[in-house]
Amino acid sequence: MDDASAALFSLKPVTFRYKREFDSSGTPQFGLIAEEVEKINPALVTRDAKGDINTVRYEAVNAMLLNEFLKEHKKVEIQARKLDDQEATIAQQQKEIQTLMASVREQSAQIQKVSARLEASNAVFQTASSDR
User: Fold this and answer.
1) 3-state secondary structure of 48
2) What do you get for the CA distance between the two ends of the chain, in Å?
3) What's the angle, vertex CA 12, arms to CA 10 and CA 14, rounded to 5?
4) CB-CB contact of 23 with 17 (8 Å)
5) What is the Cα gyration radius of the chain?
6) pLDDT, one tens digit for every residue, the chain (132 residues)
């Protein structure tokens, strides 16, 4: 069916009532106007023996709706897989950030120790130099 079902986006659903001779209760109906459907896709209507439009082929419209639904569903599945991949990537990056932060903290502590030793060495050197 591929893109044939894209014609659905041009259809305009309506609310209507059948003539009293067909439905005396006047119950509201939902559907399509066959003449409008015929302009969009002639294969979606049936004709009588005289060739006049008879009715909409709703079974064909339903199949087309299913086709469009399945195409959209496939898109949603692809997006869901991408989202899962992104979530996995984010989780991995968060672990890497935690590891890097721990390394930065450790290096900072080592730098402070070295700085403290240098200061102590400089103090000893200055004391030794001033004694001379």
Assistant:
1) coil
2) 99
3) 170
4) yes
5) 38
6) 888 899 999 999 999 998 999 899 999 999 999 999 999 999 999 999 999 999 999 999 999 999 999 999 999 999 999 999 999 999 999 999 999 999 999 999 999 999 999 998 887 777 766 665
